[in-house]
Amino acid sequence: MDASELTSSSINSKARRILHAAMQLKYTYEACMKEPVSTTQLASFSSNPEVHGPRMGAVQIDFTNSTLRSKWNQAVVELLAEVAESTHPDIGAKIDWRKLFERRINRIVSDASRLRKMDNSVETKRKKFSRAVSHQKLQRRIRTASMMLIHYKSLAFEDGVLFWSYILWSLDSLASTGMSDEETVSEKEGNSSFRAVVDPGSRHPAFRTLFRYVDDVPSLYPNLFTRCGKKPLKRVFVPSTLMMCALRSDNSDSDDDLCPTRFLPYLVKNGYHV
């Protein structure tokens, strides 16, 4: 086939097939979502380009730099151009494969950069919202615990004073980062929603029960608390895969003064289901 008989579409089609084979792509847009070449690979390539350079079927892109500034991406362009020249020798030197693949690699790098910025923006907003929720939850629990401590001090009820003193100490130690994370989830059927609650992996699992009790206290003691605001969403707890005690170096359930399991019998004694 003579170069004059080639259309822009057919040239791009041939280049696209080579790129897809090199990066194991089904669609071109997947290229910017692939894992970039690692810093370890780049270091190895810098020391020995012949041995550690890009290979067909396993090509990765350096998303940190354009082709002009990345020797790795230049090597990728060279590899793709060599494959194109050997695959289509009839076209000869009339097609500048290097420039064609250089434009494609630069477009992939640009798309990957935009994608990262979008992801970072969404993730930043999610983290800010999560921190705000955790802070509000901490402050609400501190207010509840403080009110109950004052109440039991006025009654001179030693067990109550000990329990709520421990809760306040725990909240102060765990801080907002020790509060569970929450995300609103809309049910597929119907218009209802619920809050998916995930405990921090570094927090002892017994704190879930203790803090659930703290959250329920205003409804259990209506004479002490005035309910306000809209009805809260149903909360569904998601099991945590890691369960380590944040206030201990191990995860044992001993009767240590710092271990939250020590206070579970207090809840049972007060008729709270644990």
Which terms summarize this structure?
274 residues; mainly alpha; three-stranded mixed beta sheet; 3 strands; 52% helix; 6% strand; rod-shaped
Give your account of this protein's structure.
The chain has helices at residues 8-23, 39-47, 49-52, 71-87, 97-155, 158-174, 206-220, 264-269; strands spanning 181-186, 193-198, 234-238. By secondary structure, it is mostly helical. It folds into 2 domains: 3-117, no CATH class; 135-269, no CATH class. 19% of the residues are buried.
State the gist of this model:
Helix content is 52%, strand content 6%.
**Sheet of most strands:** 3 strands, mixed
In total, how many beta strands? 3
Q: What is the count of distinct domains?
A: 2
Q: Proportion of β residues?
A: 5-15%
End-to-end Cα distance, whole Å, is: 78 Å
Instruction: Write down the overall geometry.
Output: rod-shaped
Question: Topology as H/E string?
Answer: HHHHHHEEHEH
- Helix fraction bin: 40-55%
The SS-based structural class is: mainly alpha
Strand arrangement across the biggest beta sheet: 1-2-3
Radius of gyration equals: 30 Å
Summarize model confidence as the mean pLDDT. 79
Low-confidence stretches: 240-255
Quaternary state reads: single chain
The count of helical stretches stands at 8
Question: Layout of helices and strands, plus pairs?
Answer:
Blueprint: H1 8-23, H2 39-47, H3 49-52, H4 71-87, H5 97-155, H6 158-174, E1 181-186, E2 193-198, H7 206-220, E3 234-238, H8 264-269
Helix pairs in contact: 4-5, 5-6, 5-7
